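INTERNAL TRANSFER SHEET
From: sequence group
To: structure group
Subject: ATP synthase epsilon chain

Please process the attached sequence and return the structure record in the designated field. Keep the field labels unchanged so the import script can parse them.
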Amino acid sequence: MSLNVTVVSTDQAVWSGEAKRVVAKTTEGEIGILPGHEPVLALVAGGQVRIVTAEGDHITAAAEGGFLSVENDRVTVVADKASLL
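Return from structure group:
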């Protein structure tokens, strides 16, 4: 099983692909997402979104503002500002 992950900002697509794990900072604290995670809608607090791809590579994106959505193994981060680090 894997996650289908998309990270976008208001003006560009930052990264999308298959992943084993996603970790992001929300206003409620840091959240770790694995395949099979229950649906979640959370506000992004700013900081890093860390992704482990299906191949085992590590991707890190900076994200400020916006929200994170999880549903049916699909993770979407829509940030006011986002870029790869």
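Handover comment: Residues 3-84 form a domain with the ATP Synthase; domain 1 fold (CATH 2.60.15.10). The CA atoms of residues 65 and 80 lie 5 Å apart.
Transfer complete.
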